[in-house]
Write a structure and sequence with these properties.
With about 425 residues, this protein is α/β, with parallel strands linked by helices. About 40% of the residues lie in helices and about 15% in strands. The strands form 5 sheets. Strands 4-3-5-6-7 form a 5-stranded parallel beta sheet, sandwiched between helices. Strands 9-8-10-11 form a 4-stranded parallel beta sheet, sandwiched between helices. It has a 3-stranded antiparallel beta sheet with strand order 12-15-16.
């Protein structure tokens, strides 16, 4: 599982196409009936080069895996699926011109979102002008869902968990603890980053309602030079729990080292991102100090979901490796196709009808779990997990309690090793 910083903001461009039926949407988002066997065109931009290229390439695999699966089963309504993928070079400006070309020149039937909220926002604005639905996998920050264009046209949908809800299972666990075990004070340091601060702010709201006292809550610049000062301030509070809005591994490592230097060891330490960085995280902080650290994540290769199992098997057959090698981007992309398939099977490729269907309250099934969209296209129902590093460099799923794959939480966190 990659660092959440690697996704910077929003992702996907994957498969609004799965179920495309017998209509072809026009420039205004409408569709004209056809009985031809011409391909259903699905347009998207991907960051195949530039800052987001690693994620863009993973999404490309997700798209192509989905399209291959669809076509191997006869296509959609007997029509093959054809992906029209452009390289946006990780540029918001290029995204706008690319989607204009996809719709006005290439006359695609459906559009998928690009990677990162930075790119999804201009894609959403552009597709809204043409009346096209935009299903995307991880552009799940508020600055995408709350675009003026989306509030007007309601064309954005994501089957992935909204960023702000990443840490909700953690907050619910804290609240569930017996009063004698529950931390009584909490610190909420947050980097000024769209993936780091929102989930921590939601946790703070939940825990304050439960009576846990906030002794620190500040946003600091997402710059290495700012980390130690903020960490020292947190250590001075002596808070029993720290929920860190971290953008990456260096931020978490800096806080951990500062806490150790101050001989400050909170009972609970969760971070928005960083501890999910695998061996890179262990190399930065040490195996012993990693023990007890908690971090959220959504889909992963061992997720107990029948649809996910099938996708994992197909991915391994096509690309090799194991389930643990599969980037979360792949599932986020693939799930867009599943949502689109249900929509197109229900109403065809008329984008206005697709938008109406996806806002009807219907619950759909994806490799990431159930999908049901609110008025802004957010989905609060997909898989959401908390992981913890435990003894022996074991990275284990611990929340939700009782969920398939969850093991007992190590609580309280052991002291730093020095």
């Amino acid at each position: 599982m990659r660092s959440r910083r690697a996704r910077f903001v929003s992702v996907i461009a994957v498969a609004l196409v799965v179920g495309a039926a017998a209509c072809s949407s026009g420039g205004s988002g409408g569709g004209t009936s056809t009985t031809s066997k011409s391909p259903i065109l699905i347009g998207a931009t991907l960051s195949l080069t530039g800052d987001f290229s690693a994620d863009g390439q993973a999404f490309k695999r997700g798209y192509e895996l989905w399209a291959s699966d669809v076509n191997s089963h006869g296509g959609l309504d007997g029509r093959p699926v054809k992906l029209v993928l452009l390289n946006d070079g990780s540029s918001p400006t290029t995204v706008v011109s690319d989607y204009q070309k996809l719709i006005s020149v290439d006359h695609v039937d459906l559009t998928f979102g690009p990677f990162s909220s930075l790119l999804t926002a201009p894609a959403a604005n552009t597709t809204a002008r043409y009346g096209y639905a935009l299903v995307m996998g991880a552009g799940t920050t508020d600055d995408v869902f709350h675009l003026a264009s989306n509030k007007k046209v309601h064309n954005v949908f994501s089957p992935s968990l909204p960023v702000k809800d990443y840490l909700v299972p953690f907050a619910n666990w804290i609240v569930s603890l017996p009063p004698g075990e529950r931390p009584t004070t909490a610190a909420y340091p947050m980097a000024n980053d769209p993936f780091a601060a929102p989930p921590v702010q939601v946790v703070q709201q939940i825990l304050e309602r439960a009576g846990i006292k906030t002794v620190y809550s500040k946003i600091f610049p997402a710059e290495v030079s700012s980390y130690k000062g903020a960490a020292d301030q947190v250590a001075a509070t002596g808070a029993q729990m720290v929920v860190l809005g971290s953008p990456d591994i260096p931020a978490v490592s800096a806080f951990m080292k500062a806490f150790e230097q101050q001989h400050y060891n909170p009972k609970v330490f969760a971070a928005a991102s960083g501890p999910d960085g695998g061996q890179e995280f262990l190399n930065a902080v040490g195996i012993a100090n990693a023990t007890g650290m908690m971090v959220p994540n959504g889909w992963y290769g061992s997720y107990e979901n029948p649809l996910s199992h099938i996708m994992v098997q197909e991915y391994i057959a096509k690309y090799g490796g194991t389930g643990s090698d599969i980037n979360t981007d792949v599932a986020e992309a693939y799930s867009v196709g599943e949502v689109a398939a249900d929509a197109v099977n229900a109403v065809g490729t008329n984008n206005a009808q697709i938008i109406k269907f996806l806002h009807s309250g219907v619950t759909l099934n994806t490799v990431q779990g159930p999908a049901q969209f609110d008025s802004l296209g957010e989905n609060p129902k997909p898989a959401s997990f908390i992981f913890q590093w435990q003894s022996g460099a074991n990275y284990n799923q611990v929340l939700p309690i009782g969920a398939p794959g969850s093991v007992k939480i190590l609580f309280p966190k052991p002291p730093w090793t020095g």
